[in-house]
Amino acid sequence: MALLTTGGQLIKDLETHGAIAAYVPLEGGFEGRYRRRIRSAGYKSLSITARGLGDVAAYLTGVHGVRPPHLGKKSTGSGAAVGYTYFVPPIVTSQIAHLPPKSKGLLLWIIEGHILSNQELEYLANLPKIEPRVKVVIEVGGERYFRWSPLTQVIAA
């Protein structure tokens, strides 16, 4: 990789394919440069981790219930003593609703993507087709240099 990278090819591939699987060096640093280049190209960036996502479709595009750990506290009433359920708005849909008018879209950068199942990866590969303003980059593994490929090719392999 060059000392200074423009990120032009990554941005072209991201706009062409919609979802990219990235292999990043384990010591980090390179993904920040690419995220900065993508932000300067007109995208708003959102970074999340794949750990604890649960149902990916519900978490990203639907209102979903979460139940924090009850820590021994019981809910009032005659229901189960597992605590209250709080409903959280969808992350991607709410971020898209608040995009600036001149923004190209939302970049969803997911770290630790190697723990996702093939079904979850397929949903994330199809998410830019469902919502065209969303672009997805998933870190699926480590490498000695920063490289990427379309997410559909990684799923097929």
UniProtKB/TrEMBL annotation:
Enzyme Commission code: 7.1.1.-
Keywords: Membrane, NAD, NADP, Plastoquinone, Quinone, Thylakoid, Translocase, Transport
Reaction(s) the record says it catalyses: a plastoquinone + NADH + (n+1) H(+)(in) = a plastoquinol + NAD(+) + n H(+)(out); a plastoquinone + NADPH + (n+1) H(+)(in) = a plastoquinol + NADP(+) + n H(+)(out)
Gene Ontology cellular component terms for the protein in this record: plasma membrane-derived thylakoid membrane
Subcellular location: Cellular thylakoid membrane
Keyword flag Cell wall biogenesis/degradation: no
Annotated GO MF terms: oxidoreductase activity, acting on NAD(P)H, quinone or similar compound as acceptor; quinone binding
Membrane protein topology class: Peripheral membrane protein
Main location: membrane
Domain of life the protein comes from: Bacteria
InterPro entries (UniProt xref): NAD(P)H-quinone_OxRdtase_su_N (IPR020874)
Keyword Ribosomal protein: no
Assigned protein family: Belongs to the complex I NdhN subunit family.
Subunit structure: NDH-1 can be composed of about 15 different subunits; different subcomplexes with different compositions have been identified which probably have different functions.
Known function: NDH-1 shuttles electrons from an unknown electron donor, via FMN and iron-sulfur (Fe-S) centers, to quinones in the respiratory and/or the photosynthetic chain. The immediate electron acceptor for the enzyme in this species is believed to be plastoquinone. Couples the redox reaction to proton translocation, and thus conserves the redox energy in a proton gradient. Cyanobacterial NDH-1 also plays a role in inorganic carbon-concentration.
Protein name, as recorded: NAD(P)H-quinone oxidoreductase subunit N
Species this protein is from: Leptolyngbya boryana NIES-2135
